[in-house]
Structures are given as C-alpha cells and as structure tokens.
Amino acid sequence: MPIVVDIDVMLARRKMSVGELAERVGITPANLAVLKNGRAKAVRFTTLAALCEVLGCQPGDLLRWEPDERGAEARPGGPAAAEEAVEA
After folding, report:
1. pLDDT (0 to 100) of residue 68
2. Burial environment of residue 62 by CB neighbours within 10 A (0 to 12, 13 to 18, 19 or more)
3. In this predicted structure, what is the pLDDT of residue 76?
4. The total number of structural domains that make up the chain
5. Which CATH number does the domain housing residue 32 bear?
6. Which member of 2, 74, 80, 88 has the lowest number of beta carbons within 10 Å of its beta carbon?
7. Structure pTM?
8. Residue burial 14-49, b: 16+ Cβ < 10 Å; e: rest
9. What is the sign, positive or negative, of the torsion defined by CA atoms of 17, 49, 58, 68?
C-alpha cells in the first residue's frame, strides 16, 4: 500500500507506549495496532485529529505517500490512463 503510517516514529520521539496512546486517544490498543501496522482500510478524521492532539503533531507526521512497486503508471486511472484518454 502506498500510504505509510509513521505512528511508531512519533511514539518513539514522545517516549510513549502504544497502550498509553490508545488510552489517551480513546481507541482500543487492538485498533491502534491495526492503524499503526498499516492494515487499516480507513481512519476517521476525529481519530486522526485526536492522534495529532495527543502526539503534538500534524497529520503529515503520521501519514505519508510512497509509490508502490508497480508505480502509478500501472494502476487503472493512473497518469498513463489519463494520457491515453487525451490521445484517443
């Protein structure tokens, strides 16, 4: 998945445990682990806001985009598909 979750980085910088963060944010440690390990399909803005408040950071400190191995060119609707549509 091209979205990388950097909660571990912020936890280390804040010297905070997953359990403490989960408690302060108001989610279960299991749900935080799903998010932290990049297995979540979605995140609520309220949860993201609470994470940022507790960790004293911006959303971009927790989430970043990295191209996947196939690259954007291979994905349906990616840049290559847009170019083909224009040329057609």
Report:
1. 83
2. buried
3. 57
4. 1
5. 1.10.260.40
6. 88
7. 0.76
8. eeeeeeebbeebebeeeebebbbeeebeebeeebee
9. positive
